[in-house]
Amino acid sequence: METDIVRTFDKKVFSKLYRDELLENILPFWMKYSKDNRNGGYFTCLDREGNVYDNDKFIWLQGRQVWCFSTMYKNVEPRQEWLDMALQGADFLEKFGRDKDGNWYFSLTAEGKPLVQPYNIFSDCFAAMAFAALDKIQPQERYKKIALDTFDHILKRQNNWKGIYNKMYPGTRSLKSFSLPMILCNLSLEMEHLLGTERVNKFIPSVIHEVMDVFYQKDSGLILENVYEDGGFCDSFEGRLLNPGHAIEAMWFIIELGNRLHDDLLIKKACAIIIQTLEYGWDKKYGGIFYFMDIENKPPQQLEWDQKLWWVHVEALVALAKAYSACGDERLASWFEKVHEYTWKHFRDPEYGEWFGYLNRLGKPLLDLKGGKWKGCFHIPRGLYQVWKTFEEKE
């Protein structure tokens, strides 16, 4: 079986497929339909055909799209239309995105009036990532300042990042979430040209420790979404929660750090976690990766637990591509082919372009939208780019 995988797994074929999908389908869709030419910024609530069905603007999706087109301009080709697209979102964010204290709102009206308070630190994370990426292609002191000021705000808020908007009663069940150290793991590398290598190198060990020691559970080989502040296990809905997509996405960040540090043991551990998470999180009856799970197989709290989401599968493909290239474990090649087949068969829309975001357990679209409050121009283009470049560079 392993011999067959080695013979049939062609990195060049996958590299070209993912490149063409990115450049000929995904990016043109967002270029064509998402620009708000009246107010600036982007529409993200797009139906199957690209029509705008709601014009509210969500800060982290605005930031993600700025990052996307800035990154494509820098790393793929310096197309003027991509630079203009990045500036379209950055100008809007700069004018309207923050409150007087420098915190980024969650959402705005089409014109830029605040709708939802800055309760969500991930708005800040993706704003910092956006302006750092834009500064790489069009250096401006104000872009640097926005990115660095925002990063400092994130670090100040990281231990109580919802602040006054936290609805949990203090002291009874104090938990910390995996999602923030996971994103900081990637954000620090994205901002290295601004933070400096020395600062990033000091930052990295604490992030690796949080991800690979605190949230990682040795007994199960899985990563929890929430633990007590001291790292202990909390036997509750929140404490037993697994998000396979988050865990797998974090592992490709860890693999990149492992490559940076020349730490083969760290890379091997990340590869093992990817395999273990897929074996636990794969729907053995209908295929695809579950959205939420319980580490003890108890009923999860989330009613959408069995949905299949776009970002989970795209991030799994990136993680598997990087893991296989780093480790050469044929189980990773086999899993890549399995996740690839499911993802391209069920999420890709050959009729109207782009990909569906939300499938039911059977793999049928629950909603035929191409963008909304949570899905924008980020996971799919980033994932396609990463798989393309990972397989291309390793040849």
Overall number of structural domains: 2
Oligomer: single chain
Radius of gyration: 20 Å
Please estimate the helix content.
55-70%
Could you please say which CATH topology of the largest domain applies here? Answer: Glycosyltransferase
Largest sheet: 3 strands, antiparallel
Overall body shape:
globular
Overall pLDDT level? 95
Order of helix and strand elements from N to C terminus: HHEEEHHEEHHEHHHEEEEHHEEHHEEH
Strand order of the largest sheet: 3-4-5
User: How many β-strand runs?
Assistant: 14
Detailed description of the structure:
The protein is mostly helical and 395 residues long. The chain folds into two domains: 1-33 and 175-395, Glycosyltransferase; 35-167, Glycosyltransferase (Alpha/alpha barrel). It contains 14 helices and 14 strands. The chain has helices at residues 2-8, 11-33, 59-75, 80-96, 121-137, 141-157, 179-190, 192-195, 197-214, 244-261, 264-281, 310-327, 330-346, 379-393; strands at 45-46, 52-54, 57-58, 107-108, 114-116, 175-177, 216-217, 222-223, 226-228, 241-242, 293-294, 308-309, 358-359, 365-367. The strands form six sheets. It has a three-stranded antiparallel beta sheet. It starts with a helix and ends with a helix. The relative contact order is 0.13.
